[in-house]
């Protein structure tokens, strides 16, 4: 065994903890946020300070350490919640644009929202939420209007924007296509519905050409 006479040793001090998605384990784990104190050691005895390291994130399971930017990735539980809320908001956006008088539209919307994880969602609940949303952001959008209200644009971007970087293209397109199904449940897209769907595509970081293509394909696909 080779004797190590001198070297740099690092002592790690915890400064926080929580739950994160561990890239090493591939799942949700507890973590410690730690800061390292580097010392020059002779025969294992620290003698000189050599600065600090970190902070870094240490997984409680695998003990690997990662940069603090790892915490920007949502946990699996949080990601599921964000996805459920994104689908719900996209559907509400389409309903706000197209109205809630059509029974097929409400039935389709409720089925999609239930599929996203809101198991108890009903058509009547959606109608009530849309009425509250319309009152909050201003008059309900006219189905013949050509523009999506600014407040609704903000709502969609706040719900969809943070999720987009964490989804593959197929996942982002799926949210858009589910919203398109709601708009198409009672016939072709109205101008306001198309505007909202275009906004949804933009918030999900889907290019304008790809958004138009996906909406056209959805319109040609039998429901």
Strand tally, please? Answer: 4
Q: Output the number of helix runs.
A: 7
Lateral arrangement of strands in the main beta sheet: 1-2-3-4
Structural class: alpha+beta
Proportion of residues in helical segments: 40-55%
Mind summarizing the main beta sheet?
4 strands, antiparallel
Distance between the termini: 72 Å
Which series of helices and strands comes N to C? Answer: EEEEHHHHHHH
Features:
4-stranded antiparallel sheet, alpha+beta, 4 strands, 223 residues
How is this structure best summarized?
This protein is α+β, with helices and mostly antiparallel strands and 223 residues long.
Descriptive overview:
Strand 3 and strand 4 form a beta hairpin. Helix content is 47%, strand content 22%. A four-stranded antiparallel beta sheet has the order 1-2-3-4, with no helix packed on it. The protein is of the alpha+beta class and 223 residues long. It is elongated and about 80 Å long. The chain has seven helices and four strands; from the N terminus they run ββββααααααα. Helix 1 crosses helix 3, helix 1 packs antiparallel against helix 6 and helix 4 runs parallel beside helix 6.
Topology of this protein?
Layout: E1 6-22, E2 27-42, E3 45-59, E4 65-66, H1 76-98, H2 103-116, H3 123-137, H4 150-160, H5 169-184, H6 191-203, H7 208-220
Antiparallel strand pairs: 1-2, 2-3, 3-4
Helix pairs in contact: 1-2, 1-3, 1-4, 1-5, 1-6, 2-3, 2-5, 4-6, 5-6, 5-7, 6-7
């Amino acid at each position: 065994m080779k004797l190590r006479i001198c070297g740099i040793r690092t002592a790690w001090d915890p400064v926080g903890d929580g739950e994160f998605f561990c890239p090493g384990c591939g799942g949700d784990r507890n973590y410690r946020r730690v800061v390292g104190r580097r010392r020059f050691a002779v025969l294992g005895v620290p003698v000189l300070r050599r600065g600090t390291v970190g902070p870094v994130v240490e997984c409680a399971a695998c003990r690997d350490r990662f940069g603090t930017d790892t915490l920007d990735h949502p946990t699996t539980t949080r990601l599921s919640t964000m996805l459920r809320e994104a689908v719900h908001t996209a559907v509400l956006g389409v309903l706000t644009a197209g109205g809630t008088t059509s029974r097929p539209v409400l039935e389709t919307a409720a089925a999609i929202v239930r599929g996203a994880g809101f198991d108890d969602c009903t058509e009547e609940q959606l109608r009530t939420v849309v009425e509250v949303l319309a009152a909050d952001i201003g008059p309900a959008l006219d189905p013949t209007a050509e523009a999506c209200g600014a407040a609704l644009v903000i709502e969609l971007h706040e719900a969809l924007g943070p999720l987009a970087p964490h989804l593959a293209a197929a996942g982002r397109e799926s949210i858009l296509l589910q919203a398109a199904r709601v708009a198409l449940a009672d016939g072709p897209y109205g101008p306001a519905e198309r505007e909202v769907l275009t906004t949804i595509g933009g918030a999900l970081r889907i290019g304008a050409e790809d958004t138009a293509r996906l909406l056209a394909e959805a319109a040609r696909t039998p429901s």
